[in-house]
Structure formats: structure tokens, C-alpha cells
Amino acid sequence: MKQHDIFIPFCDKCALETNSIFKHLTRDEAEKLTYEKDFRHYKRGDILYHEGNRISGFYCVNSGIIKVFKTGLDGKEQIIRFAKPGDIIAYRSVLSNEPACTTAKVIEDCQVCFIPTEILISFVKSNPSFALELVKLTCHELGEANSYITDIAQKTVRERLAEVLIQLVTEFGLDEQKYLKISLTREELANIVGTATESVIRLLSEYKTDKLLELNGRKIKILNIKGLEKISNVFN
Length: 236
Hints:
By secondary structure, the chain is of the alpha+beta class. It has helices at 11-18, 27-36, 91-96, 117-126, 128-154, 157-172, 186-193, 197-209, 225-232, and strands at residues 38-42, 47-49, 57-71, 77-83, 88-89, 103-116, 213-216, 219-222.
């Protein structure tokens, strides 16, 4: 394949490989999605959409990582989630016909499929199995939001940071050297935990002293997952 050629993935094959919600489409629906979506490439730092703007469709991640966040009155980001291959973002605003409630920014070069609003609405109306899975996905994300609110209210920053690291291990995994497969700045970690960057820097240094992890720039090597679980009280 020449460098200027663009390979557009077939939705039925991609859905099975990434376990995305589109695996619940019929063959005809998957074919329709393949030919009516807009396949896009984004670089690190690019913005897919801004909070408060109207959007005419939603996104399915084919490769790369996107952070989804809200911006506070002071301009500080609160990271809601990270979207990885197979995940869809901005679909709730599309379904509710409301302005985007978050901003999406690329943190690892990505390829995404932009899917027009009318396509999603037509699938919801014509495919009960797909509609049910979409409801389940919405409920799951709502449950995660409720858990985060509880953690903010009841856990210390030290506990929350440990829990965030465990979640990143679960979601993105470790490489052969036990480094997290997602690379985040200290500020981004702080924006997930909901604290000051200085607090995250201090706590990571404490974790390093306690031999729970090693630090190599942005890269974090997990040495003792059980120790982090004990700190986080994640199973209590």
C-alpha cells in the first residue's frame, strides 16, 4: 500500500476485534456504517470537539487514545475518561440533541470514525439489540461517574491516586517491562484524581520510596500492584 493510500476499516471486522458496540449491528447495518462514516486522522494535541459546541455526530476510536474532560471555572481540566480503540464518545449529546458536555483531545495519535447523528438514531430505532446495548453502555458510564463522586467525597488523595493507577493498569495494561501502556503528564494524572499537580508529584515520589513503582519521565513502572490495591481500598 502506498503512503498516500488510506485504508478505511470495515466496521463489522473492527467491531469484533475491539469488542465495540457495533458488533450488535446486522450485516446490512454494518455495511451502511462502513460506507457512510467519515474516517479521520488526528495528531497528539488535536481537539475533536469542544464543550458547549453543537456536534452533528459522534466518534468511534479505531486507534490511539483520546482524553475526554470538562473544564472548570478556573480553567482547570477534570478528566472524565480515556477513550481507546472500540470506544465511542459524544454519543450522549447526539442522542439528547444537546451541546457537547465535554471536550475531546488527542493524547496519542489516533484514527477515528465520525458517524453522523442520523445513522445512530436510525440504528436505535431499527435494531432493539443495539439500542439495549447502548442503554447498558450509558448505565455503565453513569455508574462509573457515581463511583468517582463517592471516591472524591470519601477517599484521601493518596487512596485515589493509587486507585487511578490500578484503573490505568486494568484499562491499558503493562508492557513487558511493566510500564503502563499509557503515558500521562503529572498534570493529567492530577486532573483524573481531582487534586493539585504538586500533590501527585509528592505522592508518586512516596510510592517510589515505598518501592511500589518506578518513574522514568512520564513513564510509570508498576512494581507492586498488591501494595497499590491495599492503599486504594479498592476492594473494601
